[in-house]
């Protein structure tokens, strides 16, 4: 299966185009890196690929069909700030089970302690909260994960632990991952190939596949 961006273009209101005629193909099981300077449009591209924003030009296809609307999408996005992506009035158990019901083994692999399930989001550290957001996105229906600076706020040891489990899981499930990061060391270590957004975007006819 492939996640494909075909000639996509996006800009905010009347601002200049962030990218245009941009093509990208992510294959199942592939770990693809996306690097680029701050402000060049990485997060915007991640949101468009995951269907959070609609491309103003071109299309996004998952397995040759448009992204599904109104039901669980096979393309999931995890971004840098877990506190902004959880409902502060929900217990962690409910947050976790929004998309699926992960078993204890998955929780243990990501270092989630059972007693955290009955806490509120503000009773966890950023790193603990992010583990929940990662697991929440990893339903068996997830085919592609867009990891937008997913571990940027974590210490080096936690970052390494999470990526070790992520990569093992990607292999087991043939999951494709787009690793959006400004950390060259991380991208070079975990990715099969890397795109430099600066060199290919900005209204040029860019094609990456
Ligand atoms: N909702 C918005 N409305 C208007 N402009 C926006 C909006 N979100 C982002 N931008 C602008 O679009 C450009 C790209 O932002 P984006 O967050 O995609 O960049 P980025 O490459 O992910 O940056 P960083 O690495 O700093 O997170 C920036 O100039 C930003 O100011």
From TrEMBL:
Highest taxon above the source species: Bacteria
What positions does the domain ABC transporter occupy? 3-208
Please provide the record's keywords in A-Z order.
Answer: ATP-binding, Nucleotide-binding, Transport
Transmembrane region(s): none
A single GO molecular-function term is: ATP hydrolysis activity
Tell me the Pfam families matching this sequence.
ABC_tran
Q: Does the keyword Lipoprotein apply?
A: no
Q: Which GO terms describe its biological process?
A: transmembrane transport
Its family? Belongs to the ABC transporter superfamily.
Q: What is this protein called?
A: ABC-type dipeptide/oligopeptide/nickel transport system, ATPase component
Protein source organism:
Desulfosporosinus meridiei (strain ATCC BAA-275 / DSM 13257 / KCTC 12902 / NCIMB 13706 / S10)
């Amino acid at each position: 299966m492939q996640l494909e961006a075909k000639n996509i273009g996006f800009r905010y209101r009347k601002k200049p185009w962030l990218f245009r005629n941009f093509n990208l193909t992510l294959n199942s099981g592939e770990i693809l890196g996306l690097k680029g300077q701050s402000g060049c449009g990485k997060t915007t591209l991640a949101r468009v690929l995951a269907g959070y924003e609609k491309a103003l030009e071109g299309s996004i296809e998952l397995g040759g069909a448009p992204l599904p609307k109104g039901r669980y999408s096979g393309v999931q996005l995890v971004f840098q700030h877990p506190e902004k992506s959880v409902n502060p009035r929900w217990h962690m158990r409910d947050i976790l089970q929004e998309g699926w019901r992960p078993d204890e083994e998955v929780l243990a692999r990501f270092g989630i302690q059972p007693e955290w399930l009955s806490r509120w989001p503000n009773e966890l550290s950023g790193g603990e909260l992010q583990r929940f957001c990662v697991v929440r996105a990893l339903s068996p229906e997830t085919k592609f994960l867009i990891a937008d600076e997913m571990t940027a706020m974590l210490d080096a040891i936690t970052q390494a632990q999470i990526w070790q489990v992520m990569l093992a899981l990607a292999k087991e499930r043939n999951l494709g991952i787009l690793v959006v990061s400004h950390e060259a060391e991380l991208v070079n270590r975990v990715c099969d190939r890397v795109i430099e957004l600066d060199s290919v975007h900005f209204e040029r006819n860019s094609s990456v596949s």
